[in-house]
Amino acid sequence: MTGFEQLVRRCAGLNADELARWVENRWVLPEREGEGVLFREVDVARVELILEIRRDYAIDEEAMALVLGLLDQVYSLRRQMRRLCDALEMQPPEVREAIREALPPRVGGEPG
Amino acid sequence: MAQSPYEVLGVKPDASADTIRKAYRKLAKQLHPDLNPGKPEAEARFKSVTAAYDLLSDPEKKTRYDRGEIDESGAERPRYSYRPHAEGAEGWKYTPEGEMDVGDLDDILSMFGRGGGSRRPGGQTFQMPGGDRLFSLIIDFVEGATGGKKRLQLSPDESLDVTIPPGIEDGQVLRLKGKGSPGFGGGPPGDALIEVHVAPHPFFRRDGDDIRVELPVSLAEAVLGARVPVPTVTGPVTMTIPTGSDTGTQLRLRGKGIHRRRGGRTIEGDQYVTLKVVIGSPDDPDLANFLENWSKRNATDPRATLQGSTAS
């Protein structure tokens, strides 16, 4: 868990106003802790990701909202996909085989 | 938490190299151990000032520090990759709004607008459209030109009647609605997708909506004219070869090409017939005899058009 000031110090190129704005925009969701906030590892990684995207791709804040929205959708899908895959793994072989056969071919695949 | 090297030297993060050097010199003079004997905190600060200046005076290290790649002691910083966090249990709180309810299978399936596998509290039942099935079908040239019905045998007890539209192109895909895999839970069936391959023809050729064919004619037919049978995609027709024709003469049979419906109208292509004179019996002594006399009086050069275009 990392405090607000600590995170600002830790991340070169991040200032307190920006971080406060990102929290307000709900780009980063730290936990409330008394008067202040605490960042979990996922939040710290996300702050570093935002900084990296901004620096490496020169993305401004409006475009960042779009980028984050899309990223969140992708990761949401990947988490759900992972849950489904985990559930599939636990099925007996015949169930997995039946699912494999029921998978519709991808368009553009071999004629079947 | 350690101070950043900028804080240690008391300069702003965007300070110039010159400002950094001046700040370092000032502090180093103040804190030098020889000038501060018996003051351990001054010695400790002197060390950290020196370390900070070591880092900030080296352009490469400074850049790496500014990018967050190394920490204030110059050690590699662990890279916090976002992906393992985002895909882990912690990532759920960044699920986009409106997708927050991620409880059971129904919620996963509903991401694609398909409802759940069992009756939901809302009363909808899970339905899923069936998948598409892909087939390929080879037809001959004339079938492709005129269109028609074709039966596709899928298995010994399942067949599909496919209507081929006139003028279908090679590789065109026909979609038969509802002839794919059955749906799930009362969902609609998928479609059958049929990729049609049109085999080439020994003498017909497609040219858009027109058909082209090369027609052999005898020397007599070309010179004297004749009425000869010509194959078309809808059967043979009789065509007049005009008197004085030659190899390469092109004749048009109007409306004998591909008839295609487009936008409620029928578009009629033509058939183009290109004549090719064949002598037939070149070893005929009468013909040889005749030509010997005839060519003496009619000296023509059939290769006149080749002159000048190549080096002789």
- Unreliable residue stretches of chain B: 115-123
Structural class of chain A: mainly alpha
- How is the CATH topology of the largest domain in chain A named? Multidrug-efflux Transporter Regulator, Chain: A, Domain 2
Enumerate the strands of the largest sheet of chain B in spatial order, edge to edge or round the barrel: 6-7-13-10
Spatial gap, N to C terminus of chain A: 54 Å
Q: Order of SSEs of chain A, N→C?
A: EHHEEHHH
Describe the SSE topology:
The complex is a heterodimer of chains A (112) and B (312).
Chain A: E1 2-3, H1 4-10, H2 16-24, E2 31-33, E3 36-39, H3 41-57, H4 61-89, H5 93-102
Antiparallel strand pairs in A: 1-3, 2-3
Chain B: H1 5-9, H2 17-31, H3 40-57, H4 59-66, H5 82-87, H6 105-110, E1 133-139, H7 141-146, E2 148-155, E3 158-164, E4 173-176, E5 192-198, E6 205-207, E7 210-218, H8 219-224, E8 226-230, E9 237-241, E10 250-253, E11 259-262, E12 265-268, E13 271-278, H9 285-297
Parallel strand pairs in B: 1-5, 7-13
Antiparallel strand pairs in B: 2-3, 4-5, 6-7, 8-9, 10-13, 11-12
What would you note in describing this structure?
The complex is a heterodimer of chains A (112) and B (312). Chain A is built from five helices and three strands; from the N terminus they run βααββααα. Helix content of chain A is 64%, strand content 8%. In chain A, strands 1-3-2 form a three-stranded antiparallel sheet. Chain A is mainly alpha-helical and 112 residues long. The longest helix of chain A is centred in the C-terminal third of the chain and has 29 residues, at 61-89. By secondary structure, chain B is an alpha+beta fold. Chain B folds into three domains: 5-66, DnaJ domain (Helix Hairpins, Orthogonal Bundle), CATH 1.10.287.110; 133-198, Urease metallochaperone UreE, N-terminal domain (HSP40/DNAj peptide-binding domain); 205-296, Urease metallochaperone UreE, N-terminal domain (HSP40/DNAj peptide-binding domain, Sandwich). Chain B has helices at 5-9, 17-31, 40-57, 59-66, 82-87, 105-110, 141-146, 219-224, 285-297, and strands at 133-139, 148-155, 158-164, 173-176, 192-198, 205-207, 210-218, 226-230, 237-241, 250-253, 259-262, 265-268, 271-278. A four-stranded mixed sheet of chain B has the order 6-7-13-10. Chain B is elongated, with a radius of gyration of 44 Å. Chain B starts with a helix and ends in a 15-residue tail after the last helix. Residues 115-123 of chain B have low confidence and may be disordered. The chains are: A mainly alpha (112), B alpha+beta (312). The A-B interface holds A 6, 9-13, 29, 40-42, 44-46, 48-49, 51, 55, 69, 71-73, 75-80, 82-84, 87, 102-105, 107, 109-112 and B 1, 3-4, 13, 65-68, 80-83, 85-88, 90-96, 99, 102, 105, 108, 111, 130-136, 181, 190, 193, 195.
